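Please check what follows.
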Amino acid sequence: MFKQKLKSLDYMFWDKVNANDTEHFRKLVSWLEDQKIRHYTIEDRAGLREISKPDWDKSFDKFILDVGCPVTTSNLDKLEWLIGLAVRLEYEDNLNKYQKVTKNKEADAAVPSIKSTNPLDNLDFESNEFKNRVNAIAKLLKVAQHPDHRVTLEACSKYVTQRLNSNALKNPSSVVIKGKPFPIIETEMGLDMGDKVLNNTAKALSLLYIQDLRNLQTGINEAIVAVQNITADPKTDTRAGRVGR
């Protein structure tokens, strides 16, 4: 059960190792410490290297404690934990190498096997032509332009969705804000940051937060109405009813 992990660690005898064999077991533990774990100094590894000595088990038990192994069952379980530790340390030592491989695999996996017919997939969203078109749309809709053209495009999308949808076009007055504008800038917000710009920014963020809460409440109300419409009009199957026992 260790072979694939040992192969990944470049252990020379990964396909021949027999953890139930005392000599193989001790050689493998010594190799893991020497080549991968390296918890001890070179001098302190002598006890693990002397695999023929009768007190080797004492050195192994001390090593297990020193590296913080939580396993208290069989030596095979402890060895499995040590191999897992070696794999983790090997990964950390070569983090950039393995991250590059992982990213390449993720990129390959993300490539669709079928060529998309959606023209949007072929657009270069960072090209000057695309940025100029976004700014032209924003100017047409009278939407303030943001330094990041993607933010500007998002604002245009919200404007079109909320103000130019089919219902709004049929009944334009439904989306026209009525009433006197709330004087948020002149209103005290309960704290002073010592800077007028920061105070005004905080007020604007407060308005956006209140808007999010109102949208959330609207969604909750719509869900409640939908559930009530279902529960208030139950479908009764009279054929399943019986009178008496």
About this structure: The longest helix spans residues 196-231. The chain has a mean pLDDT of 81. The radius of gyration is 34 Å.
